[in-house]
Amino acid sequence: MKKAVISVLLILFIVAIALGIYGYSIISTGFDINKTVYIYIDEKEDYDKLLKDIADSAKVNSISNFDMLASVLKYKGNLKTGRYAVKPDMTIRDLVNNLRRGLQAPIQLKFNNIRTKEDLAKRISDQLMFGEEDLFNYLNNSEKCKELGFNKESVIAMFIPNTYEFYWDVSVEKFIQRMKTEYTNFWTDKREAKAKEIGLTSIEVSILASIVEEESTYSDEYPMVAGLYINRLRRGQPLQADPTVKFAVGDFSLRRILHKHLEVDSPYNTYQHAGLPPGPIRIPSIKGLESVLNYAEHDYFYMCAKEDFSGYHNFAKTLAEHERNASKYRLALNQRKIFN
């Protein structure tokens, strides 16, 4: 009897060891990758798609082991949206635990060199879960813009180009609120005071900075160009900025502004309307904003692209001097057969 009991216990011990080894072989299943890859779960929470991504992108060594473990840990019906990292040294147990807990890998969201709300919506939606239309419609909603302290024309001034950490599944509303917070943080009392000294609001600084950046090929010229436009604003002279005409026409590729372009009926046409346009013609960089706040003080009121096509400008104090510069530039355009 005693031997029988010992035999049974021995068998149970061996079975337990075997099950333990088998269980460990399952949970220790790894991934055939040599760098971190990312798995995305959107609002559809499609488990079959998740399995496909883990097999195709993460190259799991056994998809059946993952599926089994997900069932045992009751994850299948509890998917959480997000962007999840799969690292070379991880096991399926590590991944399932992260998925169950919603332990996402944050992204470093970047945006710069953006002109329109359409461009912004696409650039952001390419990096986050929500759709392009979701953000675009939000920024075109007059009431929501008003709540933020802007209108539909000026709301893109709220976006300060930089690198921001977000979770991929952030909502449009939370994304917008974060951008408003970053805008508020940027506009310190010191910067607000500088804008007031110039006679501009923070939004107007953004509008002017957007024109300065579109007008300048090189950032070292930003302060000079900003000073010229500030001189014109103070005199009440129209800005006559070619980039605002391009914005009004809807064609940023124009290399030569013709009389037909100057006749376009738009509040953004600074040849027809004095003062600043109703909103930025691009999202200005921090350097552009700082260049307006710290503009170069001088007596120039006119500028024209240099005839050497270097990207820099000839500046002039008088109209007569400007006309001489403009003639040289027009001649260079004709010689190169640039007619539009």
Structure write-up:
The protein has helices at 2-27, 47-56, 63-72, 92-101, 117-125, 132-139, 142-148, 172-186, 189-198, 202-215, 222-235, 242-249, 259-262, 286-293, 319-335; strands at residues 37-41, 82-86, 107-110, 163-166, 302-305, 313-316. The longest helix is centred in the N-terminal third of the chain and has 26 residues, at 2-27. It is mainly alpha-helical. It is built from 15 helices and six strands. It folds into three domains: 24-101, no CATH class; 107-171, no CATH class; 189-335, no CATH class. The strands form three sheets. It has a two-stranded antiparallel sheet. Strands 3-4 form a two-stranded antiparallel ribbon. Strands 5-6 form a two-stranded antiparallel sheet. It is elongated and about 85 Å long. Helices cover 50% and strands 8% of the residues.
Structure summary:
The chain has helices spanning 2-27, 47-56, 63-72, 92-101, 117-125, 132-139, 142-148, 172-186, 189-198, 202-215, 222-235, 242-249, 259-262, 286-293, 319-335; strands at 37-41, 82-86, 107-110, 163-166, 302-305, 313-316.
Offer a few descriptive terms.
340 residues, mainly alpha, 3 domains, two-stranded antiparallel sheet, two-stranded antiparallel ribbon, 8% strand
Structural class by helix and strand composition: mainly alpha
By DSSP (H or I, 4+ residues per run), the number of helices equals 15
Largest sheet: 2 strands, antiparallel
As for the number of domains, it is: 3
How far is it from the N-terminal to the C-terminal residue, by CA?
A: 104 Å
Order of helices and strands: HEHHEHEHHHEHHHHHHHEEH
Q: Could you report the average pLDDT, rounded to the nearest whole number?
A: 90
Strand order of the largest sheet: 1-2
Relative strand content: 5-15%
Residue ranges: pLDDT <50 for 5 or more in a row?
A: 7-24
How many strand elements?
6
Could you estimate the helical fraction of the residues in percent?
40-55%
Instruction: Output the radius of gyration.
Output: 30 Å
Q: What is the molecular shape?
A: elongated
